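Quick one - first record:
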Amino acid sequence: MSLTARLALAMALVALLVAGLSGFLAYRAASSHLERAMALGLGPAAPAPRLGLRERRILQELRGAVAVSSGAALLMGLGAGLLLALGLVRPVRELAQTAEAYRRGDRTRRAQVQGQDEVAGLAQSFNQLLDELARKEAEEKRLLADIAHDLRTPLTVLQGDLEALEDGLLPCTPEHLRRLQEEVRLLGRLVEDLRLLTLAESGGLRLTPERLDAQSLVRGVLEAHAAKAAAKGVDLQLRGKAPPLLADREALQRVLHNLLDNAIRHTPAGGRVEVSLEEEGSGVRLAVWDTGPGLKPGEEERVFQRFYRGDPARGRGGSGLGLSIAKSLVEAMGGRIQAGNHPEGGALFVLWLPRGDDVYAPFTPGG
């Protein structure tokens, strides 16, 4: 039985029960009143009165009126229940049809439900859910296209060079072999970045937070990038100091490597990349500032998207996942990261991490 029929039948049964019970009580009350009235007329010593023809006729008419009123209540309840059921079921049917259309591949249809009641609120939430699903599906398609694009470039180079080596068109020299090894390393970095990003976003990456000396850790990362910065003519600086922080050593080093690599790549010769440390509230603030062109309006959040390329002319060598990985790792360590532009120009990336005043046991993010 459909929901409409069940609701209509329920309303009819309720109306019938109310009318029948009311009629029954009215009939009993009328009978009692007639008996008391006749007893008063006969006197206190008279035997129990018997209803006459007139009284029986009155009660019979009352029973008929009760039956008619019960039947009318049944019909009215059935009609009102049917109208109410249609009004309640229509938006539910609209939601079901919209869900079925989405299942069949129609990503544009949305539930058209009017009103301000709970069902209308459900329809609005349902439409928002469909919008979010469609957006995530589009992101997944774009992600697969970006992965295919980044994989195709080194694979094409490898295939062309290997075929040239096989045909004897390219001499097998150490220089050519190093170039092939670089393409293989690029593929390896892309695969590893995808694995790390997937684990971090799914909460499957196990981190071991420990009490770290912020100055010592940052200084070590800067020394690792000193040669690259010097070759490009970029000055690296460390300013400020901060108390020990609580973080996973390898994860934080990975975040700083990604931020510094991105900053040096976008800073012109003669520019500067500055890392600053300071205590802020109950945590530690770590900022990376470069004197490059900075971020375009609206890029503050999009730079953390996977494979986002704000600069179409950026050179190869990166996987396009560095900032996405940095954001996921920082959040997995209980911190947050924000991107913007420095008042003096250039891009500014700021991290907030908890202080390391106490030693904590290892934990699993999201657990």
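second record:
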Amino acid sequence: MPPWLPRAMMLAMWIVTAFGIVLWLFVRLQNLIMLLLISLFLALALEPAVNWLHRYRWPRGPATGAVMLLVMALTVAFFSLLGSMLVGQVLAFAAEVPAMIRAALHWVNQTFDTSYSPTTLLNEISSASGVVEQYASAIADNVWGAGTTVMALLFNGLAIALFTFYLCADGPRFRRVICSVLPPRTQRETLRAWEIAIDKTGGYLYSRALLALVCSGAHYAVLVVLDIPFAFALALWVGVLSQFIPTVGTYIGGAVPVLVALLVGIWPAVWVLVFVIVYQQFENYLLQPRITAKTLDMHPAVAFGSVLAGVAILGAPGALLALPMGASLQAFLSTYIRRYEVEEHHLLSAAAEADTAPAADHGEGDGPRTDDGAGTGHGGGRAARGADGTPGSAPSPTD
């Protein structure tokens, strides 16, 4: 037996054992890892506002608490309005059920030459009461499970709030501890990546909030003019949902106002649908490129694909984390991707015209330029290349 074979077998055994332990820990701590990822995203999103308050001599702890309380208040108000709208619509629908049943019976009797009456229908429904009682008993048996789920959600929410507070309030200390175990060059790259993540995540949140405000205001004005009930809650629903589901969020959110408008009449529903479609085009081609040009400049198809990938990997939290993580990764990698001069070709004419337009107004001091038209804003990255495509000199460590 070669002398190295026992050592190699022992090393392989230790590697397999370590991999099994890590996999076991990952499965056991999957919920905790998810909570930490969500908390880190929220901390990165809140840090620009906390830093702004800190510049006005607010301590980081009270500044973080004030920003978190504001976000929680807005979230509670949003769900309270949606809850009131849902209850109101259910009550309105229940009040319309008898008239709808009478109209449906009249149409059935005229179409199929039958003689059904509301009394006969009530007898048929009462004969099926046994099935309804079975479903009711099943729901009663699941009350304990529903209560346990609510308690778990409440505990997870409190854990996310606690982690978010500490990651944001003690952000400088946390980054200093991480950098203390890294060599100097790795420290610079880590801090560069962290700064990009803060800029992209904070910019994503605030730009989406501004777009949601504009979208809610426009839809609210139209719903009020058309005299649609629960106009404010419906407009807020469309504004929030449209900004966190790229491209198709406006249509998904606009389906609810269209359905509610059907209770008023067919023409109000048609006008609401037309406005939803027109506003989506206005937002995609005029409003959104100007607001998100320096915060989250991603192609709509790439953004929608990122959300789908995030949902496939992490579930519902992945939809929230996908866009800022994708934008941060895009901005960080664009610093190190080597680029070459593109040859002239008729298939590239439209792309060349689109690329040359924003290049003219690119000001100084914006950092290296990427394909999406946004600089990283950190002054680092590769040097400019000559016309022959040869790379320039690499930046010094002080860059």
